[in-house]
Amino acid sequence: MATSTSIDSATLAMPKGVSLWDDAWLRLRKNKLAMFGLGFLLLVLVLCLLTPWIAPYSYEEQDLRLGAAAASAEHWLGTDTFGRDLLTRILYGGRVSLLVGFVATAVALLIGVTYGAIAGYAGGKVDAAMMRFVDILYALPFMIFIILLMVVFGRNLVLLFLAIGAIEWLTMARIVRSQVQNLRQQEFVEAAMSLGLSPVAIIVKHLIPNALGPIIVYTTLTIPNVMLLEAFLSFLGLGIQPPESSWGLLISYGVETMEEYPWLLIFPGLALSMTLFALNFLGDGLRDALDPKASRD
Q1: Nearest CA-CA partner of 94 in 28, 47, 150
Q2: Is residue 55 included in any domain, yes or no?
Q3: What is the CATH number of the domain that holds 213?
């Protein structure tokens, strides 16, 4: 009995293990810039999602008698040249910009992870041929490709998602391929092969889950790139069309009237810049938190 009691007390005294994800979360919480980015991003997401319920105006509601007016008690950020509330249009524009950023990134994630995992697992001539195809796509002028798609097939959100997502998967494919090539030599993959698991099962159940760290990090860094690309297209008049708005479209309008009505450029520019900074801070924090070398320090 004494031996059993001593064993039980020793077992209770043993410290509980911490998983890699718990350890990464603890590291992320210590990064103040990353937590600021996460908090700001959550705030923007909540405001944009609740815009139809919290905004006192519609994004297309006009008051031509008011015209472009500076900030006031009724219009906190002022109005544009058509008398539309700027804060409301920024919130509705944020919904579109964030939707493009997340959906297009999801498209890029799906294509890039699948393509890179297959290439890294197959190896040999298959891998060489697949990556040469990626090199060829890298050499193409994709901005001109997107502009041609918009001109030929029209301007709509679905095409914008597919066009941007179809060009952002290349780097993701390279990252996943490199991770899978390293993981393929590990013992747990050889054990899965010896058990007779199919290549698809090995890729889906073993390789991709173990490469999630770099995938998550690059995903958070891809979203701001996509949002900048959408803003650039909207600035050129090839993205979102009126009366809908996006941050890029609002910035385009602001540039045209910046000398007379500077608030039309300042506030949408701040919204886009702060969101991009938040996403980059979060991405950098996740990179440091999920770095396996740092976790051994």
Answers
A1: 47
A2: no
A3: 1.10.3720.10
103 belongs to a structural domain: yes
Encode the chain (297 residues) as per-residue pLDDT tens digits. Answer: 445 454 445 444 445 555 666 777 788 888 889 899 999 999 999 998 898 888 878 777 777 666 777 778 787 888 888 888 888 889 998 888 888 888 888 888 999 999 999 999 988 898 899 999 988 888 877 777 777 776 776 666 777 777 777 778 888 899 999 889 888 888 888 888 888 888 888 888 888 888 887 888 888 888 888 888 877 777 777 777 777 788 888 888 888 888 888 888 899 989 988 998 898 888 888 877 776 554 444
Range of the domain at 218: 38-47+85-296
Q: List the beta bridge partners of residue 85.
A: 79
The reported pTM is 0.79
User: What is the domain count for the chain?
Assistant: 1
33 within domain boundaries: no
Residue 177 — left, alpha, or beta (φ > 0 → left; ψ -120 to 50 → alpha)? alpha
**Dihedral sign computed on CA atoms, order 100, 103, 107, 108:** positive
Please report whether residue 113 resides in a domain. yes
